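> call design_seq(struct)
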């Protein structure tokens, strides 16, 4: 299924949220399989482990979000909220974050298609504006704020 610019239908969103929650809460990250190769003399020559390194949660064209990417982003976002949502609120928040991540990928795709380039000066100006707005002009305070929000 390819995600388009249009909003995902409520039924599909609920299915995706269910899949996301199931993947985030109960998924084992790695499964192992061992293969043993015997030589002609029935001696073990080698063993090889195969591991699932990442599970793709959603794909938009060539961009992907893995379960691990989503977990990290969810932890970062929840770390900035007090109190942390529970139950139905957490489900709604998770669904919203999932949709936000899809929207971000769509915007990045659109920007790439339109060849939008943001120069370093514009990024520096935006960062300076954030620091000033949040009274974080001191480098130590800025680093501490980034660290506490999981962005360092």
């Amino acid at each position: 299924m390819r995600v388009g610019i249009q909003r995902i239908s409520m039924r599909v969103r609920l299915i995706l949220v269910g899949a996301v929650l199931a993947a985030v809460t109960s998924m084992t990250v790695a499964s192992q399989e061992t293969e043993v190769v015997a030589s002609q003399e029935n001696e073990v020559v080698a063993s090889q482990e195969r591991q699932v390194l990442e599970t793709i949660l959603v794909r938009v064209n060539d961009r992907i979000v893995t379960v691990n990417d989503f977990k990290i982003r969810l932890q970062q976002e929840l770390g900035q909220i007090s109190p942390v949502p529970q139950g139905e609120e957490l489900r709604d928040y998770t669904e919203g974050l999932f949709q936000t991540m899809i929207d971000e990928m769509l915007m990045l795709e659109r920007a790439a298609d339109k060849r939008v380039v943001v120069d370093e000066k514009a990024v520096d100006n935006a960062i300076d504006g954030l620091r000033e707005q949040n009274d974080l002009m001191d480098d130590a305070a800025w680093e501490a704020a980034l660290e506490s929000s999981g962005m360092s």
